Target: Prepilin-type N-terminal cleavage/methylation domain-containing protein
Amino acid sequence: MTNRKAFTLLEVLISIALMGIVIVALFSSVDMMQDSNQQLAQYLEKSKKTTNITKVLYMDMIDSDGNITITKDEFSRVCIGETRNSLYALPSAKVCWIVLKKENTLARIEGNGYHLPLRLEERVEIDPVMTAIEVFDLYHEKDKILVLIQQQGKEPISFMLQGIVKPEKKKAPIDKNATTIPPTPL
Model:
């Protein structure tokens, strides 16, 4: 009786045990890959958000008229007098980037002809951009602007813009036909 056509019970049990060990190893490796993919997706989402924020700030400045005011008081802020980069379809907008005290939130304020602090009748759009800001600083010298942003516990973001020139103050035109009256002595 050397002619066998079936497995013994012991062989079937051993193969089931080995298959169970292999399946457990496969499921744990699949679970680790899913966790890794989720972490990568979260990192990419944060990176994309940071990239979009810096892109908007960059475009606000590059499309500006050069009238950029940097104020370093209790609120670090940058106001761009007029920019063509509007998120709300304005032909030209005044944009301010300001660090609010609540959670050190970096916010972008867009509108027309408003003043800080805002008055009740002024209509603006305020977009909270980042929280936990440790550093929001800009340096403007001649035609260069250096931007530094750092969130708590994260790598700093920095970039430089060139070619942003402050507009020259226009002098009143001299009227050649006007007559001048000499000052009278006292």
User: Anything to note?
Assistant: The helical segments are 9-62. Strands lie at 68-72, 76-83, 93-100, 105-111, 124-130, 133-141, 144-151, 157-162. The longest strand covers residues 133-141.
